[in-house]
């Protein structure tokens, strides 16, 4: 086990490069299973534990995997097993994409129910509704989802809630169904669009990803392709918040500024300066910021995955901020940890009321989940004295080389074995 040790109080200066998007990569890698001939060569893959987990899962199914720095080659032409029931599958949320991918290509699969961050109930009823609409029989037995279809036939599906996972999963299966599928009320996140673009590179016919209606015309088969994953909106947002909170001047490269607009708008409202270029953003900040209110919502709204890092910066902003978390029912577990460092936050259900304090102080804290971990790193960077963060395996699931990247910006941060 390892921990991060941070001596806070330093401004951040310099340039940092954002990695490929975790939540795109963890869908694109299972989607590569659907290519019946030729390898998928995928670039800009983030070096994170969730990706390594998926590599092991795909190898277990019979895929041939080659890793070269940030590139991954996946050859799925000789898949031997349609049964994904391992510890790795149970550990991560995105393993549910194996259901849609295997169902699409082989018309059957058995996949253990997914795990992931403990941020509230995480149902998959909308995924199941979509698979059933395409003609699959779905049952849950001994903790695994079992899906089977004689054939998949396109259908019109209206999602009751906006779900990233259900949109992508049903899109995967529908890609190899007969006829046309329409997905209404789909998620419009950049990673949904990226997965659709990846599938189209493999020979799929998907139109409208990123809009209110996605139309998928089924094709007979998919083949390997060359593809590069989009930059990570959430990793970029996390570094933007860190730069604004610590003060200084940081250029964040390999980003799509359009994907960051909701985050940039809030940081500007707080008093930071954000300068957008074609594929970078510069954050300039004195570190002295004003309070703002935030309500998380599906894209293009303020992303729930940036809510926890944002609560750290608001802890030292001048005045009262109110955060309303509308996506997950239990995404304030990090608040007790922030309080150990002097934050003044009251949680009432899905609302956090934050009264900004003048200073936070270093303490021994833990990362309760992935983005909670990012929130604690930012807290350590702004706090007086030393902060030790335990449970950093959560952080390693989604942030590549976090201490190396922050160190390059002048932070005093190191990793130690416990
Ligand atoms: C994805 O989770 C992300 N994970 C999450 O990021 C992110 O918080 C979330 O989308 C929202 O943006 C991955 O992409 C691997 P949802 P997902 O289905 O797909 C309800 C991170 O930090 N719902 O969009 O599981 C659900 O309860 C992670 O990187 C149903 O009711 O989320 C929630 O309230 C954490 N029925 C809302 O929809 C369903 O069948 C949105 O969930 C599915 C979801």
The distinct bound ligands, ions and cofactors come out as: ligand EPZ
- Biggest sheet: strand arrangement: 24-25-1-26
- Determine the number of helices (DSSP H or I, runs of at least 4 residues): 14
Total number of domains? 2
CATH topology of the largest domain: UDP-n-acetylglucosamine1-carboxyvinyl-transferase, Chain
Integer average pLDDT: 96
CATH H-tier superfamily of the largest domain: Enolpyruvate transferase domain
Number of strands: 26
**Radius of gyration over alpha carbons?**
21 Å
* Main pleated sheet: 4 strands, mixed
> What would CATH call the architecture of the largest domain?
Alpha-beta prism
Morphology: globular
Structural class: alpha/beta
Helix proportion range: 25-40%
Q: What do you see in this structure?
A:
There is one protein chain. The protein has helices at 22-31, 49-61, 87-91, 97-106, 125-133, 164-175, 190-201, 233-246, 261-270, 307-315, 335-340, 370-382, 393-396, 402-408, and strands at residues 2-7, 12-17, 35-37, 40-43, 64-68, 71-75, 83-84, 108-112, 137-141, 144-148, 156-158, 180-184, 205-207, 213-217, 222-223, 226-228, 248-253, 273-276, 280-285, 294-295, 320-324, 344-348, 351-355, 364-366, 386-390, 412-417. With 418 residues, the chain is α/β, with parallel strands linked by helices. It has 2 domains: 2-19 and 231-417, UDP-n-acetylglucosamine1-carboxyvinyl-transferase, Chain; 22-228, Alpha-beta prism (UDP-n-acetylglucosamine1-carboxyvinyl-transferase, Chain), CATH 3.65.10. The strands form 7 sheets. Strands 24-25-1-26 form a 4-stranded mixed β-sheet. A 4-stranded mixed β-sheet has the order 2-17-19-18. A hairpin with a 2-residue loop joins strand 5 (64-68) and strand 6 (71-75). Helix 1 (22-31) packs parallel to helix 4 and helix 8 (233-246) packs parallel to helix 10 (307-315). The N and C termini lie close together (6 Å). The mean pLDDT is 96. Bound molecules: ligand EPZ. Ligand EPZ is lined by residues 22-23, 26, 93-94, 117, 121-127, 161, 163-166, 187, 304-305, 327-328, 370-371, 398. The site of ligand EPZ has 26 residues, from helix 1, helix 5, helix 6 and helix 12.
């Amino acid at each position: 086990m390892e921990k991060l040790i941070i001596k806070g109080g330093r401004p951040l200066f310099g340039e940092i490069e954002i990695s490929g998007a975790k939540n795109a990569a963890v869908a694109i890698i299972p989607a590569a299973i659907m290519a019946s001939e030729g390898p998928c060569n995928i670039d800009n893959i983030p070096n994170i534990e969730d990706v390594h987990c998926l590599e092991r899962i795909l190898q277990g199914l019979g895929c041939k995997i080659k890793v070269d720095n940030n590139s991954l080659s996946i050859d799925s032409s000789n898949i031997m097993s349609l049964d994904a029931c391992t510890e790795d599958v149970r550990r991560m949320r995105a393993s549910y994409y194996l259901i849609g991918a295997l169902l699409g290509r082989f018309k059957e699969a058995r996949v253990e129910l997914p795990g992931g961050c403990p941020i509230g109930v995480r149902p998959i009823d909308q995924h199941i509704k979509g698979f059933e609409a395409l003609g699959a029989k779905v049952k849950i037995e001994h903790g695994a989802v079992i899906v089977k279809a004689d054939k998949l036939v396109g259908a019109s599906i209206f999602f009751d809630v906006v779900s990233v996972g259900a949109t992508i999963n049903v899109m995967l299966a529908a890609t190899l169904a007969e006829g046309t599928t329409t997905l209404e009320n789909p998620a419009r996140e950049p990673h949904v669009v990226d997965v659709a673009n990846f599938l189209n590179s493999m020979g799929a016919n998907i139109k409208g990803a990123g809009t209110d209606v996605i139309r998928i015309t089924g094709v007979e088969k998919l083949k390997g392709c060359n593809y590069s994953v989009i930059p990570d909106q959430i990793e970029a947002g996390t570094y933007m918040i860190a730069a604004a909170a610590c003060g200084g001047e940081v250029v964040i490269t390999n980003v799509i500024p359009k994907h960051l607009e909701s985050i940039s708008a809030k940081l500007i409202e707080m008093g930071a300066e954000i300068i957008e270029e074609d594929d970078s953003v510069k954050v300039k900040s004195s570190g002295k910021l004003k309070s703002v209110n935030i309500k998380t919502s599906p894209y293009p709204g303020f992303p729930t995955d940036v809510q926890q890092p944002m609560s750290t910066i608001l802890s030292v902003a001048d005045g009262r901020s109110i955060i309303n978390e509308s996506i997950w029912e239990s995404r304030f577990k990090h608040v007790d940890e922030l309080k150990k460092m002097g934050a003044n936050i009251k949680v009432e259900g899905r609302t956090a009321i934050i009264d900004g304090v003048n200073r936070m102080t270093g303490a021994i804290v833990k990362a309760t989940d992935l983005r909670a971990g990012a929130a604690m790193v930012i807290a350590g960077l702004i706090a007086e004295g030393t902060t030790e963060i335990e449970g950093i395996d959560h952080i390693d699931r989604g942030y590549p080389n976090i201490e190396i990247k922050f160190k390059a910006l002048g932070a005093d941060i190191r990793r130690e074995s416990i």
